[in-house]
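The protein record filed here.
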Amino acid sequence: MSILSRTTHVAAALAAVLALGAVPAQASKERLVVDLVNEPSSLDPQVQWNPDSYYVYRNIFDNLVTRDDKGEIVPQVATSWKYLSDTEIEFELRPDITFHDGSRLTADDVAYSVKRITDPKFGSPQLGQFDKITDATALSPTKVKLTTNGAYPALLAQLVKLSIVPKAIVEAVGKDAFNLKPIGSGPYKFEAWQRGVQVSLVRNDAYWGDKGPFPAVIFRAVPDGATRLANLQAGTSDLGVTLDSDQAGQLKSATKAKALIGLTERVAYLRLNTVKPPFDNVKLRLAAAYAIDKEGLVDGLLGGFDKPVSQLLTPASFGWVEGLKGPSYDLAKAKALVAEAGPAAKAEIELSTSPVFDQRIVQAIQQQLNDAGLNVKIAMSDMASYLKRSQAGPEATSTLSFGRWSCACQDADGVLFPLIHKSSGWSAYRNPKADSLLEEARQTLDKDKRLAAYKQVHEIIAAEAPLVPLYQAVVIYGATKNLQFKPTPNESMFLNRMSWTD
């Protein structure tokens, strides 16, 4: 693979920094400047949940429940909850929360938000995370009941990421207008969206909870990682997301910035479209699995920060099965399986990716697959286009795609169900046994039964390779020296949990 010289990277980065002439030269304590990879594809929290969107809108909205810094599920809009039966759960809500327009947040808004995201006609890509919820009923202004189709053990874990939108406003302005000017109840308020450049938020001084330390926050779209690094080193940004291990190493000697690193629930994987040739052939799928040197990727390209995994999950999530093995690197076996497939293995195979991903990894995977005898070509697209195609079902999605999946729920249901079950647009695999096990695991409150079902799903994935698990991803941020921020496994960027130090 071709690698640009460090000199070229730095020159390009400095040129890009100079091109950001509209941005003030220095960040300040009055304003936090955050460099994302892309601009958000949506600020409506029920439309999209890619990282660049989530980083921004998670601070505009509140959720029923959240996770604290220890990873425990704790109250947010809800103060408490109780199960009325295996299929009904009642939430008591805070009475003192207001939206940014001053209107009161009530159980009607909670019920509306749940029904909106679970309505198939609304078309949320998050539907698979919440489609076990069959009803939401406001019992009083501060009490709401959710009903599920059978017991749903992952409900609270999923609700961690279901944001509450104001019913009256959304119904009055419509979906598109709300996305352009979102109104939530969170610690920060939407101020402006300069398309292709930045989103601006201001602190909600009337917030009911812990208030943010920054009067204003700017989220900028900075696709080039070298530029995000240069901005930190120059002091023109305070926080940069999605740095790679080489960039983290460069920050060790930086005077103005530091690297913040944490293992996440996010699993990196290679998805194979099993419905179309050539990966309708299980031998070729296994060939791909044997061809990939996970340890080589992690140690050689990722600085050893990430951790190879043999299952489509990470230890940060419920459903991880200790000691489970899958296909390991064996180039000779991969070549033999490709040879057995004959001419079908020679067809050109598209490997889809997006700039948000580490292209060193994508290129290395391409090379390893081609070393095994396949004919893989990389197809790059912007993140919005990549996501749209990736969730379009097996007839429309690419033959191969590199991905890093996080449900922000730390539960196997949020990973395995959308990537494997036939009902999900993200799935390019059809296996009735796996579908049945996934349904069983999400319909019992018995943790042991859930783990047993997930173990079988992991074993099916290992045997049939519809996806190749790669590694537990770390999140690497670059931050100015005096910014205090602790990365979380679910990669939430809570602005009101950050602080400045002298």
